[in-house]
Each structure stands twice: as structure tokens, then as C-alpha cells.
Write a structure and sequence with these properties.
The chain is built from 21 helices and no strands. It is mainly alpha-helical.
Length: 513
């Protein structure tokens, strides 16, 4: 009963902290991190544990799938240069700097443990940053770069992490011994993710009940991760390929009555997993802190502070180097500026400051084996980096963006307006030959929709005004086919597509009565 009461209390506390974060416009993980610290020092507080092997599967797999599902391949390709440098170079540089620093500060720490620490704190969690970025006027390209980085940097960091943990388990590990298997695993992960998605789509095609469909979605996500890890593949890359493949196919097959509740459940699940991750790490810190004497505590806190500073500075330095280098290359005529958008100083400052760490760092630290060298120090340092980055950068990011006064662009709004007009013209054409009075009324409504859509950004007619009838459902299906075609041809991106998908879902649910 005590555990149940604590669970209810912690969830209610997390909801209150999330509401406070929205009110003062800061990332909610910032307050979750503070809550985790406070929980570590609550007298007679709960002391829950989780098998380390479960941490990555439980926390990373569903969170990553949720992010990958909304990823636009078009935007990834358009920004592949900045995204790839952040995913590969920035993560690698941060890992190396932290590893060297940790080994210097703690001479007894093996290189494998130092590298594992570097890989754990290397990947930023853009979810915290984008929560703020979507509230302010900001160039769309910066948002897409950060989202693309967040999706893929976990894969590069956790690849280094896995190698370091494996190296710690054996006396000698040569690059020539595992490099071929790493390359095969990366390629195999992408192929496996695609095949798993095709199998999942066939298995779930006949499921038409929302509870069953949602359970299968979660079960499928965990199964894909577990199978990928068991056969030596990258769970992260497999999940990313799995989610992107499903996202390109499922919308045409999934009715609104399944999709709408599924989106709500997934959003709730991601929130609960963030809460659970911060709370579990907080509970882990209490026994670590109590068994350390004052001298060792001071050393651990100093190490964590140095690592936090190194993580923040490494990202700033790399982003600035990238911007200066690219502008220099273009200035010397070695690169055609028409082929890519050049980074600006203000944009670079924003990207450099969006380095908050989050749930992946916590899960990777928690997943270390119980007997891993310097595990207590790594756990404490990882949490300190998450807490410090969320507080320092999370609380100052919005004021920084407002002070820079960046020019906002809104390509999504333009795409939505254009695609909405095409969609409702397709709906009109679908019922054009119907001579019934109901069809004529519906045509008048859709023409009004088109006129309103041309003059109002949000467009559309309130779904509560629309009666339920098969004719309307047929028109909505024609509109849906048109936006799916626009997405496949990449005339619109995923942001515009999902906005219109939500609009059509509301209309479809209303038309079902």
C-alpha cells in the first residue's frame, strides 16, 4: 500500500511540476530533475530498483519511437550536413573530451569506464529544447536540425557506450576484432527495422479495437528492441528504421478512431517514462550519497562539475568551429551556397545552447552493470550533468532566443494552406456528381471551407456543425488520399501533413456520429 501511495503522490507531483513548467515556459524535465534531487533526500522515501538490463529497453525504446514516428525524411535530407556533424563529430568530440578529463581527474578510472561516461553524457535531448523552441519565433530550419540531431545522436553515443562496456568486460579489445561486426550491425539494424515494420503492419492490419491496437504498438516496440539487442544489432537504429517505415505507411491504413486515442496514450506514456526515469535515478543517488564520506563526496561533486562544464563548452566550441569553417569554405568558392543554407552567428548560438541532457543519459547510466568500475561516480555525474544542463540552459534558453530577436519563417503554415486547398478540392470532386440534396449542402460547406482556408490561417469549419453521414466520410477519405499523395511526393513535410491529418481526423470522427 505504501508503494501505491508513493506512486500516486509522485505522479501528482510530476503533473504539478509540469503545469508549473508550462506556466513559466521552461522544459518540464527541468523540474523533474529538481524533483529527483529532492526525492533523494526525503527521509524514509521509497527505494525502488530496476534491473539495469531493462533500463534502455524500458526508457529509450518507446521515447525514441515516438520521436522517430514524427520525423520528416525530407527535412533530414535537407539538413544532413549540420545534423550529421552534430550526430557524429560533436558526440565523438564530447565523448573524447569527457573521457580524457575523467581519466585525469580520477587516475584510477579505467579508460573503458571513462569512455563510457563520455558516451553517457554526450547526446543532448532535444525534446527539452524543442518544448521551448516551439513557443518562440525561430527559423524553422534550426528546429529541424535539433530534432534530427536528437533522433540520431543517441545511436552514435550508445554505440560508443556499448563498445566501452564490452571493453570493460574483457582484458583486451582490439578495433580490428570488432570493427567488421559494428559495420554489419549498423547496416543490419536498418534492414531489420524495415522488415520488422512490414511484419508489424501485416499483423496489425485486421485489429480494429483501440485498446488492442495500442497494446500491440507498445508490445511491438519492446519486441523489436529486445530482438535487435539479442542478435547483436543496434536497438536504437532498428527502432528508428522501424518507426519511420511505419510512419510512412500506417496513416493510410489507420482509421481516426484508432489513431486519435493512440496518440494520446503515447504522449502520456512518454511523460510517465520521463517521470519514472528521474525518480529512479533520484532513489539511486540516496544510498550512493549516504555511503560516501565527506572527502569522497567533495571529489565526486567536483568531478561532476568539471564534466558538466566540459559538456557545455565542447558543444559551444564545436558549433562555432562548424559555422566559421563552412562560411570560410563558401567564401573561398569551394562550395556553392545555393546548395545549402549557411549557418548564422545567432542561429549557431541557439544550437550551441540547446545542449540539455535528458532521459537517454539517465537510462544509459542506470543500465551499467552493478559491478562496473566507478559506477557510483558515473551515476552521480550523469545525473549532475542532466540536472545542471536543464537548469542552466533550460531556464535561460527562452530569454536568450528573445534577446537574439531571430527572424521567424513559417514554411509549415504555407504548406498547410496550400495542401488544405488541394484536399478540400479533392473532397468536392469526390461528391461532384451526386445530385442529392445532402451532396449539394455538403458542397456548399466545402466551398465555404475553401474560402475560409484562403483567408484564415487555421482554416476549416468546426466539426460540431457537421452531421454524420456516409457521403461526408467519402469526401473526407478523398481529402485524406490527396494529402497522403502530397506527402509522398514531398510537396509537404511531415509537420504540415500531421496538422492536416489531425484536422481530417476530427472531421471523420464527427461524421461517424
Amino acid at each position: 500500500m505504501t508503494t501505491f501511495e508513493w506512486t500516486i503522490g509522485l505522479l501528482l507531483g510530476a503533473v504539478a511540476l509540469s503545469a508549473l513548467a508550462r506556466r513559466i515556459k521552461v522544459p518540464y524535465p527541468t523540474f523533474l530533475a529538481i524533483g529527483g534531487v529532492l526525492l533523494a533526500f526525503v527521509p524514509s522515501g521509497p527505494s525502488w530498483t530496476l534491473e539495469p538490463d531493462l533500463a534502455l529497453a524500458l526508457f529509450v525504446a518507446p521515447v525514441l519511437l515516438d520521436a522517430a514516428y514524427d520525423t520528416s525524411l525530407r527535412d533530414l535530407r535537407a539538413n544532413w550536413v549540420p545534423v550529421s556533424t552534430l550526430v557524429i563529430v560533436a558526440v565523438g568530440v564530447t565523448t573524447a573530451i569527457v573521457a580524457v578529463l575523467a581519466h585525469w581527474l580520477v587516475p584510477g578510472m579505467p579508460w573503458s569506464a571513462a569512455i563510457a561516461l563520455g558516451a553517457i553524457v554526450a547526446p543532448p535531448d532535444a525534446a527539452a529544447a524543442t518544448a521551448i523552441l516551439r513557443q518562440v519565433d525561430l527559423p524553422y530550419r534550426i528546429l529541424k536540425i535539433l530534432e534530427g540531431e536528437s533522433l540520431l545522436n543517441d545511436a552514435s553515443a550508445l554505440l560508443i557506450y556499448r563498445v566501452a562496456v564490452a571493453a570493460a568486460a574483457v582484458e583486451h579489445l582490439k578495433w580490428s576484432e570488432f570493427a567488421p561486426s559494428v559495420v554489419l550491425a549498423l547496416a543490419g539494424s536498418l534492414l531489420a527495422g524495415y522488415l520488422f515494420a512490414k511484419i508489424s503492419l501485416k499483423v496489425t492490419r485486421r485489429v480494429d479495437e483501440a485498446p488492442s491496437a495500442i497494446i500491440l504498438q507498445f508490445a511491438g516496440t519492446f519486441t523489436v528492441w529486445i530482438v535487435a539487442e539479442r542478435i547483436g544489432l543496434s536497438g536504437i537504429l532498428t527502432i528508428v528504421a522501424y518507426a519511420i517505415t511505419i510512419a510512412r505507411t500506417a496513416p493510410a491504413r489507420t482509421p481516426a478512431r484508432l489513431r486519435v486515442p493512440a496518440y494520446a496514450v503515447w504522449e502520456t506514456a512518454v511523460f510517465i517514462l520521463n517521470v519514472l526515469a528521474f525518480m529512479l535515478i533520484g532513489m539511486q543517488l540516496r544510498p550512493i550519497w549516504t555511503r560516501l564520506d565527506e572527502v569522497v563526496r567533495t571529489e565526486y561533486v567536483a568531478t561532476a562539475a568539471y564534466v558538466l562544464a566540459a559538456v557545455i563548452l565542447a558543444r559551444i566550441v564545436w558549433v562555432m568551429i562548424y559555422g566559421v569553417t563552412l562560411r570560410t569554405v563558401v567564401a573561398q568558392g569551394l562550395l556553392d551556397p545555393r546548395n545549402m543554407a549557411l549557418p548564422t552567428l545567432k542561429g549557431g548560438v541557439v544550437v550551441a545552447w540547446c545542449g540539455m541532457r535528458g532521459i537517454v543519459t539517465l537510462a544509459a547510466a542506470y543500465a551499467l552493470p552493478e559491478n562496473f568500475s566507478h559506477r557510483d561516480l558515473i551515476l552521480l555525474t550523469a545525473f549532475a550533468v542532466v540536472l545542471g544542463s536543464l537548469v542552466i540552459q533550460g531556464l535561460t534558453l527562452r530569454p536568450l532566443i528573445l534577446a537574439l530577436n531571430l527572424k521567424k519563417d513559417d514554411p509549415v503554415g504555407a504548406e498547410v494552406a496550400r495542401a488544405r486547398a488541394i484536399a478540400y478540392r479533392a473532397a468536392l470532386e469526390e461528391i461532384e456528381g451526386d445530385p442529392s440534396e445532402e451532396a449539394e449542402i455538403l458542397r456548399l460547406e466545402y466551398r465555404a471551407m475553401l474560402m475560409r482556408g484562403e483567408n484564415v490561417a487555421d482554416g476549416g469549419v468546426p466539426t460540431s456543425e457537421l452531421p454524420a453521414d456516409p457521403l461526408r466520410r467519402r469526401a473526407i477519405e478523398a481529402a485524406r488520399r490527396s494529402i497522403l499523395t502530397l506527402r509522398r511526393s514531398e510537396e509537404i513535410g511531415d509537420d504540415a501533413f500531421h496538422q492536416l491529418e489531425e484536422e481530417l481526423d476530427r472531421a471523420e470522427l464527427s461524421a461517424q456520429g
